[in-house]
Amino acid sequence: MEIYAQNGVSVELFKLGPLRTNVGLISKDQQAIVVDAPPYSVDFLTQYLQEKHIEPAALLITHHHWDHISDAHIWHDQNVSIYAQKHDAAEIEHPDNRLLATYADVTVTPCSVDHILQDGDTFSLLGLTIQMLWIPGHVQGGAAYFFKDLQLCFVGDTLFAHSVGRSDLPGGDKHILFRSIREKLYTLPDETMVIPGHGYTTTIGYEKTTNPFVRPN
After folding, report:
1. Which member of 42, 104, 148, 186 has the lowest number of beta carbons within 10 Å of its beta carbon?
2. pLDDT tens by residue, 83-109
3. Per-residue pLDDT tens digits for 169-210
4. Can you tell me the distance from the alpha carbon of 117 to that of 120, in angstroms, rounded to the nearest whole number?
5. DSSP label at residue 141
6. Domain with 171 in it: what CATH number?
């Protein structure tokens, strides 16, 4: 599903993997940025990109849970650069598959992270400016990728349309999660499109006024 198309930039969203993870695809000048890598996503996207004669250039990972990183090593083997927040990078490079006991058919393969990001780091891909915001609470890591030029932000499983992410998993903390939303995400422009890790898109302004779990201070 295409959610943005202006000035030669296309942003598409695909629901892939067992938990229908939102996978972002930002394309410009026959190159693409992929956001998150759930199981079985690379085969689909590789075929899709080949049909459009687009080369994948980078993978941005929002957090280290299996439904967002399982195929990351496949992208890396194809010389796609991997970006992740520093706490998530440690988990991606040394995954603990004991946490996947209830998903016996899923194993996370270790994957090197090429670009380890700190809170507030700004970088450029495909001529687009991207800022990484550290948003812990769902996990100890957690990255939001704010595309300033496009006014959209990939937020992983921290903020959802009319909801928030879980904080009862290892590394989670409800109070930290709420603080991340208030102090990081809610400071973005109201018109910013929010692309969560699952479910529907929303906007910062809508969540600030209607989200039943977290309101601005």
Report:
1. 104
2. 999 999 999 999 987 665 455 577 899
3. 989 999 999 999 999 999 999 999 999 999 999 999 999 999
4. 8
5. S
6. 3.60.15.10
Helix, coil or strand: residue 208: helix
For the chain, give the mean pLDDT.
95
Cα–Cα distance for residue pair 39/146, rounded to 1 Å: 24
The pLDDT of residue 107 is 82
Residue 215 located in a structural domain: no
Task: Read off the tokens for 191.
Answer: 């018109």
Within-domain flag for 10: yes
3-state secondary structure of 29: coil
Total domains present in the chain: 1
Token readout for 121 is: 């780091």
Overall pTM > 0.90: yes
Residues linked to residue 6 through DSSP beta bridges, in sequence order: 9
- Give CA angle at 162 (161, 167), nearest 5°: 90
Within a domain: 203? yes
Closest-CA residue to 196 (of 162, 147, 150, 151): 162
Residue 136's Cβ-side half-sphere holds a number of Cα atoms within 13 Å equal to 14
Within 10 A of 50 (CB to CB), how many other CB atoms are there?
10
Q: What is the pLDDT of residue 103?
A: 59
Assigned domain for 217 exists: no
Token code pair at residue 7: 């000035």
Confidence of residue 217 (pLDDT cuts 50, 70, 90): confident
Looking at residues 74-82, what average pLDDT do you find?
98
